[in-house]
Amino acid sequence: MITPRFELNQTTTLVTITIHAPYASVKDAEVYVDGTDFRFASSPYYLRLTFPDELLEVGASDYMYDADNGTFIISMEKVNKGRHFENLDLISTLLVPPGKVFSRKPHITVLNGQGEDDSYSYTECAAVDHRTEPDDSCVVVKPKYGFSRHSSQVFIGFEWEAKEMLDLEHPDDIPECDRRKLREDAEMAQFSDEHYLADRADRDNIDSLLKFVPVWHQHILNGTEVTLQHEDVQKLKQIKVREYLLTAREKNVLLLGLVDILGAYCYDHRTTEGDPTSESGWTINKLSSTLSWFDEFQTVRDVLVALMRRSLCYPLYRSWDLSVAVVKDLQQLLKLGKQMALKCLLEIHNVFNNCPPRYILNRLYIEDYCIWIQSVNSDNLFLLADKIDENMPSKEDLGLDIVELEMAADVVVEEERHAEMLKSFDEMALNADQTSSLEETASSSSEDEDSDEDDSEDEHQSEVLDSDDLSS
Q: CA-to-CA distance for 134 and 30, rounded, in angstroms?
């Protein structure tokens, strides 16, 4: 059966669903509405939705069919008049059938009736003493990775694909507890003093990028609401719907992994000025420790340190000011809630699909994030945004010796400037000496000429006198 394309609209009293089913058998179409459960069937199409509140079957059995467009228009009355159904654009939460749960921990509950997980907040998870939980990250089993560590041994036989998109060598063999140390060592080896100082000295490109205003900043400035567009909804329909039951610790890791991935996206968005390039897949993949090392985080500070370190080690533009701007972009993005986060994830999904072999990362992480984020309470993203201010890393926190490097560079620049000044003074003095010498030479030449003229006059007078004398 095919899930048809559909759109939802609402008023204070009605919910209207427009179903695009151009090849449907109209005479066999069936509509069923019972409380929050809605079903539509007309071969070869089948659609089932679970709404956040109850509906009445008003017009559902007497629906309208537009033959020109091949669409069914079905109106249903709200049981609770005046109630606004939130997140109707997050169709994955509506498509989850009740009781269908996919999880490796089936004894853990539960999402509320609106598809949002109210039992968890980031602040609660941040307060958990993780020492009381068993650390199974180094147990002698095959290393796991992917969304909530749901995968292992994916790259057996795909060594080229792993090498192309991962910095983590042999992901199916290296223990999970070794990833962080290996990543930090690789970053230290990759950091280039010359590249960093060159971008610090030549500011033209950096200053241009710092002036760019991302689209989510415009939403904040204009006070406009973020909504999913038609193409976003169509992409969501292509992703298999799942429901996740997770521990508080797992949710914390997933939220921080989301921050890491969105931070890498923010760097690419700013440096391409909102127009992804053929290198965007590489950039997002490379800057995210989650996607390139399968690393996991426990604190906001750890995420920001890793993101800023990698932004100064790998991409084309390596500037501290640019990295700070990217973190601020990330903060504003999180303040717009899960709709904005979902739109960015869908863009990443599209970029990876067009950048082989990174479509594998879509299967491992991005698709699950696209589904899961719809069930997350946006308050958790707001809290993460607030945490960024108090956890903003300093240059010293990155461990790349940036402060010492900048000080040494400033000393060299000052010495060069001083040397240039001395050289300029010497040239001025030399020019002055040459000018004085020329003047003296000119003066001496003038005196010689005057002396020659006097001698000539004397000779002339002598000649005159001799003539007079002869005449006399």
A: 52
pLDDT tens track, the chain, 472 positions: 678 888 888 998 888 999 988 888 778 888 888 888 888 888 888 888 888 888 987 655 557 888 888 889 988 889 888 888 888 888 877 876 544 443 434 333 334 444 555 555 665 444 333 333 444 445 457 899 999 999 999 998 888 889 999 999 999 999 999 999 999 999 999 999 999 999 999 999 999 999 999 989 888 888 888 888 888 888 888 888 877 889 999 999 999 999 999 999 999 999 999 999 999 999 999 999 999 999 999 999 999 999 999 999 999 999 999 999 999 999 999 999 999 999 999 999 999 999 989 999 999 999 999 999 999 999 999 999 999 999 999 999 999 999 999 999 999 878 777 777 777 776 777 777 677 666 666 666 665 565 555 555 555 555 555 545 544 4
Query: Around 61, how many Cα atoms within 13 Å sit in the side-chain half-sphere?
Result: 4
Count Cα atoms within 13 angstroms, Cβ side, for 59: 15
Name the token pair of 58.
Answer: 């008003």
Give the integer Cα–Cα distance in Å for 29 and 61. 10
Give the torsion sign (CA, 269, 273, 274, 278): negative
C-alpha span between 324 and 394 (Å, rounded): 10
CA distances in angstroms from 470 to 295, 457, 467, listed in the order given = 123, 20, 5
Collapse the DSSP code of 403 into the 3-class scheme (helix H, G, I; strand E, B; otherwise coil) and give the result. helix
Residue 227's SS3 state is coil
Distance, CA of 48 to CA of 40 (rounded, Å) = 6
Which one-letter DSSP state was computed for residue 393?
P
What's phi and psi for 454, nearest 5 deg? Answer: -65, -45
Q: Count CA within 13 A, CB hemisphere, residue 235.
A: 21
Calpha distance 317→209 (Å, rounded): 10
pTM of the model: 0.75
